[in-house]
Specification:
Elements (H helix, E strand, L loop, with lengths): L1 H21 L3 H19 L34
């Protein structure tokens, strides 16, 4: 998925640079700068998508600890 997004970003950057060459207004400049920023972020982003989350939690006396990676619903059905 990352490779597909990278290819789309490069193609859009090339199109924006051609647009900037033909029309020197501020719109293609902003588009080009935004796409360059997105490209730099995609290249240097080192966070792995398959990274596991570790959580630690401590509670005091007479307390209940609830920990979840997703949404949690706590109901009292007494």
């Amino acid at each position: 998925m990352k490779k597909i997004l990278l290819i789309i970003n490069i193609a859009a950057l090339i199109a924006a640079l051609i647009w900037l060459k033909n029309d020197t207004s501020w719109e293609p400049l902003v588009a080009s700068l935004g796409l360059i920023g997105a490209l730099i972020t995609q290249i240097f982003n080192s966070k792995k998508t398959n990274e596991t989350t570790t959580m630690n939690q401590k509670g005091g006396k007479n307390s209940k600890n609830y920990q979840s990676n997703r949404d949690i619903n706590i109901t009292n059905n007494d």
